[in-house]
Amino acid sequence: MTTTFSATGEEAIKHSIDLDSCPSAQRPESSDILEFFEIERTAKEIRDGDYKRIALQFPDELLHESVPVYRLLKQRVNEGQELYVLADTSYGSCCVDEVAAQHVDADLMVHYGYACLSQTSRLPVIYVFGRKPINVDSCVKQILDVIASNDKSLLSVLIRHDVAYSYRAGEIVKELCNKTAATATRIVYHAVPTKMEPSPTQPKSDSSPISGRHEGSDVLRTEPDADLVGNDGIIIYIGDESLTLTNILMTHSSNKVYSYNPATNAVRLESGRTNKLLMRRFAVVQKARDADVFGILVGTLGVASYLSVITYLRDLLSHAKKKSYTISVGKLNPAKLANFMEIECFVLAACPENSLIDSKDFFKPIITPHELKVALLPEGTWLGRYVLDFGHLITENESSPTSARKEAVEDDAGSDDKDPDRPSFSLITGKYRQVRRFGVEERVEVSDGGDASAVVIRNQETSVAKISDSAAALFLQSRTYRGLDARVGEDTPSVLEQGRSGTARGYSGELPPTNA
Q1: Euclidean distance between CA atoms 448 and 311, whole angstroms
Q2: Pick from 158, 148, 142, 161: nearest CA to 233
Q3: What are phi and psi of 104, to 5 degrees?
Q4: Which of 49, 102, 297, 485 has the highest count of CB atoms within 10 angstroms of its CB?
Q5: Tell me: the pLDDT tens digits for 357-379?
């Protein structure tokens, strides 16, 4: 059962997971646990780095494997190196939970299972993706058939895959390069890092170079995928349907995207559903255009640039004369967000894998930082591309001049300064609506016959405070029930008394329980 604001400890203990619903995340029965979880490599990294406190982060579907993995690692690390299992994550399980790791003062994280590979800010991370079974020869054959079915002048093919196939990705790419060497087609692939060092300073973008080792060789991942394959290239994703595949479709809408599922040995053209995905998101953007009060949801504390994007969103909303509140609620659910009734739209600052939220179960729409940028531009404006990595937005924001960066938003806001009562047309309702503007300095004379919702008594000296710029206060004034009366100055203060001391199990001066 979902609680109204936060999850209880009882709920975490009683929460059950249907492992049969996600068989791809499980370790095959024929797979050796030492090999699947790369016990020897992980133990060597821990010993070589001389780490003292190591946090092992497991997703829910692999938590039943945590005890055997812990015991095998404990047998192989040095004496004095302590291991801790993180049984629950603060946000998405794909992100490195640096918050939980700080509770045990860890100096290294070992992340198991699917990962978004976002740049961390505090701790080094060893990634153990697992090893899903795949037939390399069948995979290569299917990809070559896809390349042959496309135009002969195909210049580039970008290979993406589920991280659990990283241990075989090098062989697949090598075979593809050998088979296409006589053609003009270029195979583009960048190996997935298996270890990541924290960013020494707050980076400008999550797409900054990330160094890591893969299969014993140094790997450097640099440019974003959009720069690696042109509009005339195709993208082939190896893996079953997942959030990664959805993100690829959203961010590469101009490219053909194919998926190869190793479990069924089938290839499918995925680009056909891209338009439907974008249409759904565009409908959410239209709802965001009608909002005047926004809630900035902190969806991750493990991505290095999350503070930069929160500052960017606040600045963007402030220049658009919108009200914003920053909220950190951990894992999202409708009951939590329903507590903030005055907020009309939420903006989720999370890793790319957790940014797209289907808000049909929520009372208010939830958008991404890129969608907020689109929503605040003049009506009918579409940027022609979709960005999920908010690090790219920060890079664009820092590289462009300040005047150019705010030109579109301030042009629209400037016209409101000339005519603050100018209505806005809503494409959702098909009607005009009155826009509320916040952060505007205006001189107001308070009179006895003024609007009661414009002022509030602050103390018994009858001094008043204007609250028209507070969305929460205005919403409170519109409610019939506003909470318990403060009764300031009406009740006599009670006498201070000495309270109990000790612990709840037995306070000092408390009589011992009698034996019945």
Answers
A1: 40
A2: 158
A3: -110, 10
A4: 297
A5: 877 788 899 999 988 988 888 76
Rounded-to-integer distance, Cα 474 and Cα 487, Å: 21
Comparing CA positions, the residue from 439, 322, 333 lying closest to residue 373 is 322
CA–CA gap between residue 16 and residue 64 (Å, rounded): 12
Q: 10 Å Cβ neighbour count for 401?
A: 8
Closest CA to 43 of 100, 108, 93: 108
**Residue 198: band (very low, low, confident or very high) from pLDDT cuts 50, 70, 90:** confident
3-state secondary structure labels for all residues of 41-80: HHHHHHHHHCCCEEEEECCHHHHHHHHHHHHHHHHHCCCC
Token couple for 514: 């009698």
Strands 234-238 and 256-261: parallel
Among left, alpha and beta (phi > 0; psi -120 to 50; other), residue 265 is: left
- 501 CB contacts (<8 Å, ≥6 apart)? 507, 508
Tokens 């049969």 locate to: 20
Residues 113-125 pLDDT 10s: 999 888 888 899 9
Residues β-bridged to residue 466: 455
**DSSP code string of 414-436:** HHHHH-TT--EE-TTTSSEEPPP
Q: DSSP letter for 208, please.
A: S
27 SS3 class:
coil
- Determine the Cα–Cα distance for residues 217 and 169; give it in Å rounded to an integer: 14
Q: Are 426 and 432 in contact (CB under 8 A)?
A: yes
Distance CA 31, CA 346 (A): 43
